[in-house]
Structures are given as C-alpha cells and as structure tokens.
C-alpha cells in the first residue's frame, strides 16, 4: 500500500476508522496501523482516537500532477509534459537531463517535493526541505540568441510576482534582477540556466523557480526570508494551485517576450522595484548610488553622488542596501 493513498484519505482531517481505511485501500487493519506508524515516523501528526480511529492533525499539501494539469487551460495542459517527483537533486538539473536525452515536448516541467542539491544563483545552494515549498523548473525555447538571457531572467520575476498576487499574496516586490520579495524578506528566487544553442539563434533555457510556501523555520539561510504561510497565515496555500498559476504566468510571459521583447515588461518590473530610491552599493562598495530602476535592456540604474546615472549589468553582480 502506498503511504500517499493513506494520506490522501486522511487529508480531510476527519476521523476515519481503521476498518473503513482498510476497506478503501484493500488491506488489513494491521497494515493500516503499520502505515500510520510510518506516517508518524515521517513527521506527520496522527491522533489515535480510542474506539473511533485515526485523525490527521498536521497540514497536508501533497503535490499532484493530475490536479495541477486540471487547473490549467486545456490548450496549455496539452502542451505541457509535467512530472512530479518525490525527490531529485535539482529540478533544473532534471529538466536539463531530460532535454539532453532527447525529450522533445514543447514544455517539459519538473516539480519536486524535495531537492537534495537545489541550486541558487551565483553558485549558492537553495534550501529545499521536503513538503514545504515549491521547486519547479520549465524548459523553454527562444529565438534571438544568447543576448536575450539578461532580460529573460527579469521578466520571469514579474510573472511569478503576478501569479502569487493573483492567489492573494500582498504586493510582491522584486529585487534586481529577479528575487521575489515580501516586506519580511526573500520569498523566492529564479535561476535561469542555458541549455545551449539548438541551431543558430535558437536557444533552450531552463527556468527554475523556488517559492517558500509553508516553511516556518530553516537552518543555513544566510539572509532574511519569509514564506507565504508566514506572511499570510489566513490563506490555505496549496502548492498545486501555486504551481498551476506559476506555469500559466511563465508560459504567457514567454510568449509575450518572444513577440515583443523585454520592453513590454520594463514598466511592470519597475513598479515592483524594492531598491527604488534606496542608497545601494555594488561590488562590495566600489560603486554606490540611489536606485533608479532599470533601462530598456534590464540593466539596473544607479544615480551616484555626482549625479551620473550608471547602468549595472545583470549577471553575477550582487547589490545590497547600504546600512
Ligand atoms: C536564487 O538564488 O534566488 C535562485 C533560486 C532558484 C531555486 C529554484 S528551486 C527550483 C529550481 N531548481 C533548482 O535547483 N533551483 C531552482
């Protein structure tokens, strides 16, 4: 018997007798009792109510590929090749492997419940505890050569911010180039990786999105962070709904970007700029100035004390507010 099937039955958080669970899953009551013990070992809180049965006390938000596909519009669902994995090193790495093996689906998507080697920008690790957050990667194809990449990573930030606001998150901000922010700290991040040039001017990229959903505590995160659950405890966040909203937003954004380029997103990005008007330093303090948004290529603009506006190129530069 699959543990997932038992969790699905208990996920309504009502009391279920051992007998009815056994009947529905076609196993013995002893098997149910053993699986309930396994659930407890895996960190779920299950109450045993004498004479009545079992009741799941802890929150469950299981990822389910069918549920996600059902939430997509039929045209989009038909284009998507979606796999949900229990655990993987990195969803970005898995999409890259799939594509390298010759998967020719238009939109390969991998979502995982946990990542053992989640990748962040600038070679950092991305903490990816099981069952807590969204770890999602999509493979996309663009025409325009490598030069489109800087702008691309910015537009996906706008897409994710809009998707989360559509589900009830309040005023999602962006920290250049594409960190997703709420007032309490970083809510998510985006890692765009290049697969390579398929033919001249045609590039395949993998966009990997991590959003903190239920996480309430985390070790080894080196900056202030927040999750949707912490920021908006009154909303019952569902990773399946978030995944569907993000897939829809990213695929729409990719089409508009292909047709109209980065310019179509400049204003939308700028409205969310958390650095606007702040004293910012770049490259360990070498360059300082007031944040003034982005130019038409996605470079960040800083106004120095001398009044000069200096563009900072997207890529491997880190910026922070001067404290
Ligand atoms: C950042 O450093 O802000 C980018 C973080 C990107 C994390 C996501 S989680 C899903 C995908 N798989 C990875 O290994 N990384 C990205």
Question: What is the fold's blueprint, element by element?
Answer:
Layout: H1 3-10, H2 18-25, H3 29-41, E1 46-49, E2 53-56, H4 65-70, H5 74-79, E3 80-85, H6 91-100, E4 107-112, E5 134-143, H7 149-166, E6 173-175, E7 179-182, E8 185-199, E9 202-211, H8 228-231, H9 239-260, H10 263-271, E10 279-282, E11 287-294, E12 300-303, E13 309-312, E14 319-321
Parallel strand pairs: 3-4
Antiparallel strand pairs: 1-2, 4-5, 5-9, 6-7, 7-8, 8-9, 10-11, 10-14, 11-12, 12-13
Helix pairs in contact: 2-3, 7-9, 7-10
The chain binds biotin.
The tally of beta strands, per DSSP, is 14
CATH class of the largest domain: Alpha Beta
Bound molecules: biotin
Q: Provide the helix percentage.
A: 25-40%
CATH architecture of the largest domain: 2-Layer Sandwich
Category by helix and strand content: alpha+beta
Using only C-alpha atoms, the radius of gyration works out to: 22 Å
Largest sheet: 7 strands, mixed
Mean pLDDT figure: 90
Low-pLDDT parts are: none
Placed side by side, the strands forming the largest sheet appear as 3-4-5-9-8-7-6
Helix/strand order, N-terminal first: HHHEEHHEHEEHEEEEHHHEEEEE
- Measured between the Cα atoms of the first and last residue, the distance is 55 Å
CATH topology of the largest domain: BirA Bifunctional Protein, domain 2
Proportion in β-strands: 25-35%
